[in-house]
Specification:
The protein is an alpha+beta fold and 282 residues long. The protein contains six helices and nine strands, in the order αββαβαββαβαβββα. The chain has two domains: 41 residues; 184 residues, no CATH class.
């Protein structure tokens, strides 16, 4: 190769490396912008819906109707459960916290917790708790067996007057229906929902896992065999869609940075190899 061609090749390589570095820098800037937006969106997501935005059903008490006790077997995750029905149950409510156990499936299986029939726990409020907007003065904390509110700082006196303990429920949702599971998995705090099914107890290999409460006054959780599930109104659907798009875009930019960095590294290795080869020939 002539000296002129080598010079042209060297300039082309340098220009290409400079271009790749600019692309990497722009991808990094894009990720920082996305991170800033996600931080802003996280604050926006904390905004509670207004009572004026609620569907009329959410202000009503749940409907509970006795039914003849019936037992049936349900297969889920390779295990067979025995479910016993006690009441027909129809509830519309505002979701204040969720616990989607399907996302924890590998961890649960690792520790030999095989109760995969209870796929989701929904902490919900309705009635006066919605009409008074007392939920705006509270934070809700959810565990495997409980959901309870705490008053926000400086709001205890107001919230205590408006809060109704018998208009909050922690619903353990049972289903092996894939469509219902997917619908449940999309629920977020702030969504308005309708649950239809049966209040039940259920057991595995003769061991009772849970039995539902039959009243809203005992602070015991409801265990519901889900027959139908409707999201009456989603909270901030546009913002949630934009968040998904931004996360996908940020992931693409991160992939771009990795690919470009790998290409830069390869070019540098090739350049170093050629320099060593040139020295050896000399």
């Amino acid at each position: 190769m002539s000296a002129q061609n080598r010079l042209r090749t060297s300039r082309d390589r340098s220009a290409y490396l400079a271009y790749l570095r600019r692309v990497r820098s722009r991808c990094a800037v894009g990720i920082m912008i996305a991170a800033g937006f996600l931080l802003f969106a996280a604050q926006m997501r904390k905004a509670d819906p207004d009572a004026a935005a609620m569907r009329p059903e959410v202000f009503r008490e749940p409907r509970q109707t006795p039914v003849a006790a019936r037992q049936f077997s349900v297969d889920s995750d390779g295990k067979s459960y025995l479910v016993t029905t006690f009441f027909e149950y129809d509830q519309s409510a505002l979701v204040v916290s969720t616990n989607n156990k399907l996302t924890l499936k590998p961890v649960l299986q690792l520790f030999r917790w095989r109760d995969m029939l209870n796929v989701n726990d929904l902490c919900v409020i309705w009635g006066d708790n919605v009409a008074s907007e007392v939920y705006k003065d509270m934070n809700f904390y959810q565990g495997a067996y409980t959901c309870f509110p705490r008053y926000k700082e400086g709001r205890a006196s107001v919230a205590a007057r408006n809060y109704r303990g018998n208009q909050l429920a922690h619903n353990h949702i049972l289903t092996n229906d894939p469509k219902l599971r997917r619908r449940l998995g999309s629920v977020r705090a702030g969504d308005q929902i309708r649950i239809k099914g049966k209040l039940v107890g259920y057991a595995y290999q003769g061991q009772v896992l849970r039995i539902s409460s039959f009243t809203r006054d005992d602070n015991v959780c409801e265990t519901i065999w889900l027959e139908d599930f409707e999201i009456l109104k989603r909270h901030q659907p546009v913002l949630r869609a934009v968040i998904v798009l931004v996360v996908v875009a940020a992931a693409g930019l991160a992939g771009g940075i990795i690919a470009v960095s790998w290409r830069i590294m390869r070019l540098r290795q090739e350049e170093t190899g050629k320099k060593w080869a040139s020295r050896v020939r000399k």
